[in-house]
Amino acid sequence: MKIGIDLLWLKPQKNGGIESYIRNLLDGLDKYSAEDDKFILFVSKDNEESLKKYFKSKKFEKILCNIESNKVGKRIIWQNAHLNSLCLKNGVETLFTPVYSKPLINDKSLTYITTIHDLQALHYPEYFSKGKYYWLRFAWKRCAKTSDKIIAISEFVKRDIIGKLNIKEDRIKVIYNPIIENGELYEFNKLSNKLNIKSRDYFYTVSQLLPHKNLKTLLYTMKEIKDNEVEMPQKLIISGVGGKDKETLINLIRELDLEENVKLTGFVSNEERDSLYSNSAAFLFPSIFEGFGMPPIEAMKLGVKVITTKCSCIPEVTEGKAYYVNDSYNAKEWVDVIKKALKDEKVIKYSFEKYSLEAVTKEYLNCFREIAGR
């Protein structure tokens, strides 16, 4: 089996959860695919270096394209003009695009598999410029219509694709995201000194700094805890790549007098992240929209209590095993649910076997073989 994988969209340390998803999946393909399987990775000038570990494997072959992933407009034009012909030139007959960026015009000699992670702009158009909103709406529908198989990362996303893009159910396959347990934790003492925190004396969240992540509510929650001298941790650590809400959040932290209580770490390694998960009093995930939402699962697999919302796919993927607020924007309710979680003495490490790297990779491989065999 020979599958092309379009990685031209990947901007290292800027793509958030989607970057974690594809890197995890590449690890799985290396580990669990057959010896004679071959994956052709189409990479750009500015992400090639970050993917170099995969080129050491005999299962991966690199094709370096003369574009930069960070120059989005030029990259999209180049993909539509050249990617199909480049696939055929290199003997690739099935192209997997892990995001919505597949060429909009199909080549009849190729079959296409596309993953759709969410249709956020169709739910919250106010978070996007008009240009980006109309482009996303067009690109999602066109990619869905022209792909031989669509992978949705949750049942919630599948229902969305059926309802909003008018795609037949039998063309969509749900495959959840792979969650990897790294095993190694960064030395917490170093993080403790750097961030001025103590084990079990802070809350943690992992999130891009975007409006739908609802981080403002966590800031108001911390303000509620601080002003009312609630007996629980007074610090919140927020890790993740930036986003359009960064300046708004920084200003709100200042306005609420939370400079000593809230710390934005920016990007952290998986080992640092897992150490911050493991030593936190609880993991707070206030997002109002997710296609999957990996951080709550990562935290729960490490035995960390998770307080989150009942929005979009979150109850589905957490399997009802977290602590949930009913009103995602109500800081007082957040405080009450956090209190309840902290009083619960049970510590459970959930396994979530269906999100294991092996299980998810094998589902992808089955899908690849089905489409490549047509």
From TrEMBL:
<feature type="domain" description="Glycosyltransferase subfamily 4-like N-terminal">
    <location>
        <begin position="16"/>
        <end position="179"/>
    </location>
</feature>
<dbReference type="InterPro" id="IPR001296">
    <property type="entry name" value="Glyco_trans_1"/>
</dbReference>
<feature type="domain" description="Glycosyl transferase family 1">
    <location>
        <begin position="190"/>
        <end position="346"/>
    </location>
</feature>
<dbReference type="Pfam" id="PF13439">
    <property type="entry name" value="Glyco_transf_4"/>
</dbReference>
<dbReference type="Pfam" id="PF00534">
    <property type="entry name" value="Glycos_transf_1"/>
</dbReference>
<protein>
    <submittedName>
        <fullName>Glycosyltransferase involved in cell wall biosynthesis</fullName>
    </submittedName>
</protein>
<dbReference type="InterPro" id="IPR028098">
    <property type="entry name" value="Glyco_trans_4-like_N"/>
</dbReference>
<keyword id="KW-0808">Transferase</keyword>
